[in-house]
Fold:
Amino acid sequence: MLGPRWLMKMSMWARNPPPLKKVLFVFGIIAVCLALFAVERLVGWPDWATVNRMQGRPLR
Structure:
């Protein structure tokens, strides 16, 4: 269930919606994240982006 803070925020957004540029910006960021996720699932994670484990004792 939503708390009172979220209900107040939703009522403010219903009365005074955010500008179209801000909404498009947020949807653009979400689209980029979904595209990166899809590429990572279809192609796989690149080897150069994987961190190698250190040999020996871990640092404390």
Q: What stands out?
A: Residues 17-44 form one domain. The two ends are 43 Å apart (CA to CA). The mean pLDDT is 87.
